[in-house]
Write a structure and sequence with these properties.
The chain is α/β, with parallel strands linked by helices and about 250 residues long. The protein has a single domain (about 55-240), classed as Phosphopantoate/pantothenate synthetase (Rossmann fold), CATH 3.40.50. The chain is about 55% helix and about 10% strand. It has helices at about 10-25, 30-45, 55-70, 80-85, 85-95, 110-120, 160-170, 185-190, 200-210, 215-225, 230-245, and strands at about 70-75, 100, 125, 135, 145, 155-160, 175-180, 190-195. Helix 8 (about 185-190) links the parallel strand 7 and strand 8 (about 190-195). The termini are far apart. The model has no long low-confidence stretch (mean pLDDT about 95). The structure holds ligand PTJ. Ligand PTJ binds near residues 40, 43, 104, 159 and 180. Ligand PTJ binds near residues 40 and 161.
């Protein structure tokens, strides 16, 4: 990785880029993952590069869903494996959710490398290698494990594509998306959308899960029932509008 001075004003953003580039170098991230990261970065810039109040609220509800789920699964792709391997393993441990590798640009080699990568970060059991079931989409993300995403009641899908999000919702699953683009099909289709950088969201969710583990189950259920995903997306768009107005001195 390139040397990034810690006092560089854009240190966090540059380190994130380095991690993605390193992911491509070691064969866990697809080259297309670089483009996806660039799109995410631009939205993060517009959102102020911090967790908003509404994202924080969505993270809380998402954790409640994972804690109450019978068969929760965290779907892992090449970008999240490169950016937040420790966080994914920790979130799986504190919520009891399984980790499953599921790729848009699928190759058996990359699935195997990501499973090994997660194991090297402490994961004991990682699904995704069997690929013995299919969901109703017309590309490689259809391939899932029968005992994992296929049978799950709640699926966390960081950096998802809209098709699969829609297919999972049609199967009756609750889908939690992490996506910095509040306009994406994924964001608009998911049951709960966390408009935050996966690098912040996963860490926040680990902290929340540790705090909420002893919370009364009825209280957790109530937080889910009163959640409105439309509100979260509107808040994110409003935040972008306010920041554009502020930055442009009210000209926009
Ligand atoms: O590893 P694979 O083969 O499964 O491929 C993974 C990618 C991400 C390349 C693939 O799923 C893809 O092409 O995704 P999209 O359609 O580009 O969608 C990615 C979404 O995630 C976009 O809406 C981005 O704004 C958003 N995004 C990118 N980086 C981040 C992010 N959201 C949160 N945190 C990020 N760091």
């Amino acid at each position: 990785m390139s040397e990034i001075p810690e006092d560089h004003p854009r240190y966090d953003s540059l380190i994130t880029r380095e991690r993605i580039v390193e992911g491509v170098r070691i064969g866990i991230t697809s080259p297309q993952g670089l483009v996806a990261q660039g799109r995410g970065e631009s939205f993060d810039y517009l959102l102020g590069e911090c967790t908003s109040e509404s994202a924080s609220c969505a993270e809380k509800v998402a954790v409640a869903m994972l804690l109450l789920a019978r068969r929760p699964v965290i779907s892992v792709n090449g970008n999240t494996a490169a950016l937040v391997p420790d966080g994914l393993v920790a979130l799986s441990e504190v919520t009891g959710a399984s980790l499953e590798v599921n790729l848009f640009h699928r190759s058996e080699t990359r699935v195997g490398k990501i499973i090994d990568h997660l194991r090297s970060h402490g994961a004991t059991d990682v699904l995704g290698g069997k690929g013995d079931a299919r969901i109703d989409v017309n590309h490689d993300r259809a391939v899932v494990d029968g005992a994992g995403i296929y049978a799950a009641d709640v699926v966390l899908v960081p950096l998802e594509d809209g098709d699969r999000c829609q297919a999972l919702v049609h199967m009756g699953k609750s889908v939690i998306a992490i996506d910095l683009n509040p306009l994406s099909r994924t964001s608009r289709t998911a049951s709960v959308t966390i408009v935050d950088n996966v690098t912040r969201a996963i860490d926040n969710m680990v902290e929340l899960a540790l705090d909420m583990d002893c919370t009364d189950k009825d209280v957790l259920r109530e937080s889910i029932v009163s959640f409105d995903n439309e509100d979260v997306l509107s808040s994110a768009l409003e935040l972008i509008r306010e920041r554009l107005l502020y930055i442009s001195g009210g000209i926009v």
